[in-house]
Design goal:
Layout: H1 17-39, H2 66-82, H3 97-102
Length: about 110
């Protein structure tokens, strides 16, 4: 999605979701700004070094069952279609739907 991200994370009980999100946001912010500087010079002003890429907050939800996991995956995959950004879930570039529907890789490890 152009204005937010959905992710399902699996980890041990002591897994620190807040720390993971902090590192993810810091690393991706740096890489997004670097991409703008190097490849989108005409739009670089939209992603200045002092401008935040991410909001400070995030919302988490513990998934306690396979049914809830399926519900959340279905919601995530339908999101770009519902927003009118893609005709099919699997055609949205940032979606894991291609993995679940067609067995195609999407650039990250999706096994658990």
């Amino acid at each position: 999605m152009p204005d937010h991200v959905h992710a399902i994370l699996f980890g041990k009980t002591e897994y620190n979701v807040s720390r993971f999100i902090q590192v993810w946001k810091k690393t991706s912010s740096y890489r997004i700004k670097q991409f703008y500087r190097e490849h989108m010079t005409h739009d670089a002003q939209f992603c200045a070094d002092d401008c935040p890429v991410w909001q400070a907050k995030f919302y988490d939800f513990n998934i306690e069952s396979d049914e809830k996991l399926s519900e959340k995956l279905d919601y995530m995959h339908a999101n770009p279609v519902a927003a009118g950004l893609s005709e099919y879930s699997s055609s949205w570039l940032g979606s894991s739907a291609r993995f679940y529907e067609q067995g195609q890789g999407v650039g990250v490890n999706l096994s658990y």
